[in-house]
Specification:
Layout: E1 7-13, H1 20-27, E2 33-39, H2 45-51, E3 55-59, H3 65-79, E4 83-86, H4 98-108, E5 112-116, H5 126-143, E6 155-158, H6 159-164, H7 173-184, E7 189-193, H8 208-239
Parallel strand pairs: 1-2, 1-4, 2-3, 5-7
Antiparallel strand pairs: 4-6, 5-6
């Protein structure tokens, strides 16, 4: 598998003024370039990110984390990076762990590396722990691979992943859809243990009810897509003419 010589970061951000500059600066200690996708912020997020050294990609209105990721992916593909590291903008991911993701991808010949917070859950709220366990079990089943913490937004993905997936969702469910699509296409997904920082003033942008419903809607849709793919494969097999003897 191709070496990872050219790596950048994507940081989706929505109203993260006061935090984003530090996240960008710490990422630049480990990576060559940082893209911040400002998803319609109404504060100084974009200016602070640019002042810290990031290239800012703008959404005129809030479109969701998944939409922000896809905007970043387009830029990564256009600039032909070998891989991208995705981090949250609120400082809950330790950028000093970025080398662990690169090492895991190379040593395991893996297209995707996902952070795993589930080995140290003392500070994780109980409802978040239970939700992560359940959704990770479902995503693992659908992706055909073990993914202990499918909801972790701290990830490394190689360029070939971005070029082969086509997520249809645009919110937090996009992170699950990416893993399912990649797994179904035979890409290898591995995990690395990480620590998660919970800032005292952090307010989660995840809406428990709405985003849970989006997750179930995603699962229902991709199950239907899987059945359609199997049906097409059977039809091709049936219609394929017998080889001449």
């Amino acid at each position: 598998m191709k070496e990872l010589k050219k790596i950048c970061a994507i940081i989706p951000a929505y109203n993260e003024s006061g935090k984003i500059a530090d996240v960008v600066a710490k990422c630049l200690e480990h990576l060559q370039h940082v893209f911040v996708v400002d998803d319609g912020s109404i504060d100084a997020t974009a200016r602070e990110a640019a002042d810290a050294g990031a290239q800012v990609l703008m959404h005129s209105e809030n479109r969701g984390k998944g939409a922000a990721l896809k905007t970043g992916f387009e830029q990564v593909i256009a600039d032909k990076y070998d891989a991208v590291v995705i981090l949250d903008a609120d400082g809950q991911h330790d950028s000093d762990e970025i080398p662990l993701f690169k090492k895991a991808s190379i040593e395991n010949d893996a297209e995707i590396v996902v952070g795993n917070r589930m080995s140290k859950t003392e500070e994780m709220p109980l409802h978040r722990y239970l939700t992560n366990k359940f959704t990770s079990w479902v995503v693992s089943k659908m992706a055909g691979q073990s993914i202990p913490d499918s909801q972790c937004g701290y990830r490394l993905m190689r360029l070939e992943v971005l070029m082969r997936i086509n997520p249809q969702s645009s919110r937090y469910d996009t992170e699950s859809e990416i893993l399912i699509q990649a797994g179904r296409k035979g890409m290898k997904i591995v995990s690395v243990p990480i620590r998660t920082i919970y800032p005292e003033d952090r307010i989660s942008k995840i809406h428990p009810f709405i985003d849970t419903m989006r997750f179930f809607k995603l699962i229902w849709r991709v199950k239907g897509e899987g059945r359609m793919e199997m049906k097409k494969e059977r039809e091709v097999t049936i219609q394929k003419p017998a080889q001449d003897e």
